[in-house]
Design a protein that fits this description.
With 64 residues, the chain is mostly beta strands. It is 0% helix and 20% strand.
Length: 64
């Protein structure tokens, strides 16, 4: 799992999971919804493009 920093620069943050073998994206979710996504009505105009905050996470693993 990874996240992004840079909220002070006006970015749309996200959390993303990558497949460890292929490096392909397993899933990705943004911290602020785009127009048409649930909750988007709370972000007026184009504020969704640069609103929200950085994602600070520590990667974790689940023992098998």
């Amino acid at each position: 799992m990874i996240g992004v920093s840079g909220g002070e620069l006006g970015i749309r943050g996200f959390v993303q999971a990558l497949d460890a073998r292929s490096g392909q994206t397993a899933w990705k979710t943004f911290t602020v919804p785009a127009p048409g996504e649930p909750g988007s009505e709370t972000w007026k105009g184009d504020s969704w493009k640069t609103g929200g905050a950085s994602v600070w996470i520590t990667g974790t693993t689940i023992p098998s």
